[in-house]
Amino acid sequence: MKALILFGHGARDARWREPFDRLKEKWVAQRSNVLVGLAFLELMEPSLEMAVSSLVSKGAKEITVLPVFFGQGGHLRNDFPTLLAACREKFPQITLSTTPAVGEDEAVLQSIIEYATRVI
Amino acid sequence: MKALILFGHGARDARWREPFDRLKEKWVAQRSNVLVGLAFLELMEPSLEMAVSSLVSKGAKEITVLPVFFGQGGHLRNDFPTLLAACREKFPQITLSTTPAVGEDEAVLQSIIEYATRVI
After folding, report:
1. Min CA distance, B15 vs chain A (Å)?
2. Does B88 touch chain A (CB under 8 A)?
3. Residue A35: closest C-alpha in chain B
4. Rounded percentage of chain B residues whose pLDDT exceeds 70
């Protein structure tokens, strides 16, 4: 079974995660055939390993981790591969893949331009 | 003259700003009648004050600051209003307004869901 992890930075303020919760709800509403989980790099749970473990316990065999970040800096270039490698070691029977950050996608950037056009 | 500031977090890695540079280029290509600038909260320049100053020198009178953040945590709830208040004090002749973060917009969230659907 396939699964998606929406991977965000995390923050001290619990309200920071609201858009991530909404993303998860949207996925469940639109793509209920693919399991989904959230994970955070720091300051917030679940961690990536906790999220992978939870999805594996629900039957996931192929998990794609999608970084919900704009820019690709040290977090995505250094910390994220380390976390991903640890998960691959811990769950060798699972195919764990990843994608470019959402800020790399032209359609996501275009949606931000359209939002700006509506609110300016 | 109206202007838009795309306000991001900033990072140590210069490559982190690439999506922000692309957003600015897209705005220039699509909405050349509204001036645009980037600004960063920390670790990267220009600061919000530098960006406002630059746009004012180009003739901007009404500036909208759009937070290119997903979640609204301490940065947007505490640090950002302080920076904005300092800019309003320094440029009292300019109308400085702000909008909810891009992660609050349903169409932006939907574009992320569609990106995930394409790459999973």
Report:
1. 6
2. no
3. B120
4. 100
- Domain residues for the domain of A43 are 2-119
Contact of A61 with chain B, judged by CB distance below 8 Å, is answered with no
Vertex B113 angle, CA B107 and B115, to 5°: 105
- CATH, residue B59: 3.40.50.1400
C-alpha distance from residue B49 to each of A31, B7, B29, B56 (Å):
43, 11, 25, 10
Mutual angle of helices A80-90 and A48-57, in 10-degree steps: 30
Q: Which of A6, A27, A109 is the best mutation test for B, with the most CBs of B within 10 A?
A: A109
> Per residue in B70-113, pLDDT tens?
988 888 989 999 999 999 999 999 999 999 999 999 999 999 99
Residues in Cβ contact with A78 at an 8 Å cutoff, skipping those fewer than 6 apart:
none
Query: Which member of A64, A68, A75 has the closest CB to residue B112?
Result: A68
Q: Report the chain A residue with the minimal C-alpha distance to residue B17.
A: A71
Question: Which residue, B47, B40, B29, B110, is CA-closest to B69?
Answer: B40
Closest CA of chain B from A92, distance in Å = 20
Task: Identify whether the C-beta of residue A69 lies closer than 8 Å to the C-beta of residue A108.
Answer: no
Tell me what the pLDDT averaged over chain B comes to. 96
Instruction: Name the domain count of chain B.
Output: 1
Q: What is the ipTM of this complex?
A: 0.96
| Average pLDDT rounded to a whole number, residues B56-75 | 94
Confidence (pLDDT) at B28 = 97
